[in-house]
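User: Structure please.
Assistant: Input sequence and predicted structure:
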Amino acid sequence: MRSTAPAPELLLDHTGAPRARLDMPGTYEQARLGIAFHEAGHAVLALAYGMHVVTSEVIAWESQPGCVAVTGHTAHKTQNTPPWHYAAHCAAGEIAHVNYLLTYGLWTPQRAAACAADHDREQAIDVLAQFGYRLGRTHTPQGGKSWGMVQGMARRKVSYLWPEICATAHAIDERTVLTGDEIADLTGLNNAPVGGAA
């Protein structure tokens, strides 16, 4: 665990606004492993969809005496990634986090609600909009998809890649940060070269 807070940009969303802070009931170890699963979901789906993953990490620090804060970050580069694959990769973190709670017998309504990652949804909406794709928060826009549809895509892929996500999450929890190449070696997935075809 870090003794100081991470760089401020790691606590911001893609627009530069602070990400929502949610209290996760449970122990520090459970919260840390949950975030590791969240980041592993992003990283493993990114690899599966042909993106280049730079790093994936869990970040923990004492935010005030006796209070620990935990977040995570997965750095990646997209290269000709199909837009709906990009959106599913964004949804995968929250899906993997909730799956972790279910798999380890930790699920409660409060813990599931604390897995919410609205910043991931908003990033997917904004990125897809730049390329003319319509992603609706609560509805299906004409010619587009709803966030619920994207979550369904992510849920299927997370289920299929669950062994790889579990291995990656436990390694992130143990080592704090993994490179994309380390995740590729661990999972047998390809980490697309930077500038190469995705």
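The beta strands are 52-64, 67-77, 135-136, 145-146, 177-179.
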